[in-house]
Amino acid sequence: MSTSVVTRSGNLHFGISFSSGKCHRQISWVSTIALKRDLRIDLSRCSGVSSFYSVASHSSSLSLFGNKCIVRNVTQSCLEDDGATKYFDFIIIGSGVAGLRYALEVSKHGSAAVITKAEPHDCNTNYAQGGVSAVLCPLDSVENHMRDTIVAGAYLCDEETVKVVCSEGPDRVRELIAMGASFDQGNDGNLHLAKEGGHSHNRIVHAADMTGREIERALLKAVDDDPQIFMFEHHFAIDLLTSEDGSETYCHGVDTLNTETQQVVRFISKVTLLASGGAGHIYPMTTNPPVSTGDGIAMAHRAHAVISNMEFVQFHPTALADEGLPIKPKKTRENAFLITEAVRGDGGILYNQAMERFMPQYDDRAELAPRDVVARSIDDQLKLRKEKYVLLDISDKPRDEILFHFPNIAAECLKYGLDITHVPIPVVPAAHYMCGGVRAGLNGETNIKGLYVAGEVACTGLHGANRLASNSLLEALVFAQRAVQPSIDHMVQTKIDLGITKTWSRPRLPLLLGNDLLVEFIEMTRETRKQLQSIMWEFVGIVRSTSRLKTAERRIGELEAEWEDYLFQRGWEPSMVGLEACELRNLICCAKLVVSSALARQESRGLHFTVDFPYVEESKRQPTIIFPFSPMKLTWSSQPVHRHNS
After folding, report:
1. Which pLDDT score is estimated for 11?
2. What is the end-to-end Cα distance of the chain in Å, rounded?
3. Residue 327 CB: number of other CB atoms within 10 A?
4. Which intervals hold domain Fumarate reductase/succinate dehydrogenase flavoprotein-like C-terminal (predicted)?
């Protein structure tokens, strides 16, 4: 893996020529991760093979899926051979807003498979409280929204991307409404537009404090009603299937693990959309659901996709601090409960435990400052006062108003004896959103042919060094739509060779190792995961330093080697897969990407603050780029589990 900062523009789409996973553009400085062990892993796993894609004529064909037959005027349609390999025109990895919205469009032109790790609603979209930002008020403008986005992003945003998203966003919101999504209205019957931190105008479309849930509900209903979309629940994506033809890399689909049947299922497609969300669980405290283990970013990196801006991890300033609740939860939460930005947008005030308001001393915008500023301010207060949480108070607002706007938050707090209409809410920052990810163009394209990205897994250039509140659902909607036509064009020009599945060996289940050993592996893996999260929280958190980042880099490398040695010395093989082990290899991969990117950025900008370089430097206002690179020694987390068959 080679990490560098480009020297010319910050454009993320791209002006860069790719060849064999390398970039022809000059770079200014490089920080390389040393991969110290090969652990009997063969380099043939990363070698390329000839492309199996060819141009196909547009003809009528018969589609078979189980007992379902559909005659359609498309190219190769969805087929199934032995149940272990499935063929589709489009594969969508992820069931959040980006994946579902894309599926509903491309299904008009071919068969579409939505692959989701757990239940379809187990995604970041479902947990989004605040809303969707869009210019829908006559007093607002696209220029205002652009300015707010760029300021929040610490001027690292790609301006063309920002313009596209802010301009196209209102239409995407109207489309949701037409599909049946119900958003709050004001007394005048128009949409009630809220205001959140970093926004100069009221432009947040919301459904109380459960906006993501309402959007997901509407999209899932539409997907259920679409006979061309097939939902595969409890299928964990293991690795992308790729080949090389000259200087180009092509994506042909993905291997998955059905976690209910413990069967490896291979999906072959003409087009793959990666919409698998972020990597919040590299940290112990995160608002992300348990499925957010960086699977998409790690898979794409192993497939030699270009990765960008991984140092910019957004910590939401206000997650519910269980330690401050009158009644403590009986067990540790799998993910922190989010207290939406809209609480501060609605007038909520932050206090330390001495009931001293502190935000005005950090920023003139006080509680309405962007998230990176508020999170660092809270972190500073906690360290100065040696406290574990601060207080967010909205109790001066009328009770009915609070309960109307924040029913979900009020109900959650009340379960633990806290009435937010009378007392402040204990809050603490938690890992929330990855501003970096797989580098994408204006149509969601990547440097891998046939692979598109949308949502949190992508780095489009919209967020820059810090995401503006409620811009994430907006970005997902816009890029899901923009990826549709290029995907259709690629699908029409592509024919699937039914023998392509023999190109790659299949991942194997560790069934012959025995239950006792597997239980031992799982316990070791879970403990290693906790140690990784602890390292990231302690050394790669809200405030960083070069020495602490280097300590994290060293300790993660040692932890990874120790875990892999433990597995491989007891009979585990590189081609074996299991849910816990594959999640950890993805978390380790993403953690290393974050650390190497953070070490490469020698300035403080947006979400990346380092005490060694505490100021913004104009010369460093460039995206961090992680180019594909094949070192002589590889770890298990850095390569696909399958081999290319000769």
Report:
1. 47
2. 25
3. 11
4. 529-615
Average pLDDT over the chain reads: 86
pLDDT more than 90, % of the chain: 73
343, 394 in Cβ contact below 8 A?
yes
What are the respective helix, strand and coil percentages of the chain, to the nearest 5?
Answer: 35, 20, 45
Reported pTM: 0.87
Per DSSP, 192 falls in state P
Which of 101, 266, 371, 529 is the catalytic position? 371
Whether pLDDT at 315 is above 50: yes
Alpha helices in 459-569 (DSSP H): 471-482, 484-492, 515-539, 546-568
451-490 tens-digit pLDDT: 999 999 999 999 999 999 899 999 999 999 999 999 999 9
The tokens of 37 are what?
Answer: 């062990």
Mean pLDDT for 27-54 is 29
Residue 36 reports pLDDT greater than 80: no
What amino acid is encoded at 526 in this protein? R
Helix (H), strand (E) at residue 70: strand 68-72
- Residue 371 known to be catalytic: yes
Contact 102, 229 (CB under 8 A): no
Beta strands in 435-481 (DSSP E): 437-439, 448-449, 451-453, 458-459
Comparing CA positions, the residue from 205, 140, 128 lying closest to residue 174 is 205
Specify the pLDDT at position 642: 86
Alpha carbon of 419 to those of 160, 210, 390, 425: distances in Å?
A: 45, 19, 16, 9
CA neighbor of 314 nearest in space, from 154, 146, 436: 436
Closest alpha carbon to 341 in 320, 324, 358, 317: 317
Residue 13 has pLDDT above 70, yes or no: no
